[in-house]
Amino acid sequence: MEIRFAMHPSQFKTLTTEQMRKEFLIENLFEYGKINMVYTHVDRVIVGGAMPTVEVLVLEDGKEIGAQYFLERREIGIINIGSKGYVIADGHKFELDKKDGLYVGMSTKKLEFGSDDPSNPAKFYFVSTPAHKQYPTEKIDIKQTEATHLGSLSESNERTIYKYIYPDGVKSCQLVMGMTILEPNNVWNTMPCHLHDRRMEVYFYFDMPEDAFVLHLMGEPQETRHIIVRNEQAVISPSWSIHSGVGTKNYTFIWAMAGENQSYSDVNPVPMKELK
Fold first, then answer.
1. pLDDT tens-digit map of 56-73
2. pLDDT reading at 28 higher than 90
């Protein structure tokens, strides 16, 4: 498990491109037969990827979280971005097709990941946050999620937002998670942009060809920076940073938030004319 530390916005302004990528970009989440994780001290979030092949992968506890087992004091949201697979939570098996999700509550002692076809494996992207209460483990079929259609082709941002884990749906202690799918010929997300003073966010971009990328915008509104993000890479976005992006073609991304507030309306909009 790689460890990343929190950063003050004044320090962020001094970073080179390479330093900024090292602090905020997560490049290698998926490896055959492995689980890779990054622990960020920004709201104690863990971001990970599990890619099981022949053997089932078990999510182990580690000294980094100081627990007897991984979910002793944590909850986790999982979305499969690969071929069909399954997750076993304390003996209960959940089949997940591509873009299906799963919420697993605190106190689940054993979590296992498997693929139906080891030669064409599942890819389980997950985000875990600290938890204080046990909520029920629940599968989230993308066809049954709340879907909101936004934007327009004229604004290059026609997209559908699918809510997986949120207060009016599958409940959690603090984790909020979902997916946004851009229509063909649309490239912008979250513009006009906003800030979340009371929660951080992680963006995970996928369903892009090898030669495509997203220009992910971050930083304070009056001094923005960018990171080039390629397929199946994630970006950590602190609460003081905007989080928006434009791609070389349409793409899909998973957003996950953690903090002291789960309300979607708890944002500070940034007028377009104030961005620099």
1. 999 998 788 999 999 999
2. yes
Helix (H) or strand (E) holding 50: strand 45-51
Q: What is the C-alpha separation between 78 and 126, in angstroms, rounded?
A: 4
Residue 243 marked as a ligand binder: yes
pLDDT at 62: 77
The owner of tokens 């938030």 is 257
Of residues 21, 65, 56, 63, the one with CA closest to residue 35: 56
pLDDT at 36: 97
At the fourth CATH level, which superfamily is domain 2-265?
Jelly Rolls (2.60.120.10)
Amino acid at 102: L
Q: What is the pLDDT of residue 133?
A: 96
Determine whether the annotation assigns residue 194 to a binding site: yes
Q: What is the DSSP string of 172-226?
A: -SS-EEEEEEEPTT--EES-S-EE-TTEEEEEEEES--TT--EEEEEEETTEEEE
Q: Which amino acid is at 32?
A: Y
Average pLDDT, the chain: 95
Q: Give 170-186 as a DSSP string.
A: B--SS-EEEEEEEPTT-
Digit-coded pLDDT (tens) for 140-159: 999 999 899 999 999 999 99
Separation CA 105–CA 246 (nearest Å): 34
201 is in an annotated binding site: yes
Any known ligand binding at 260? no
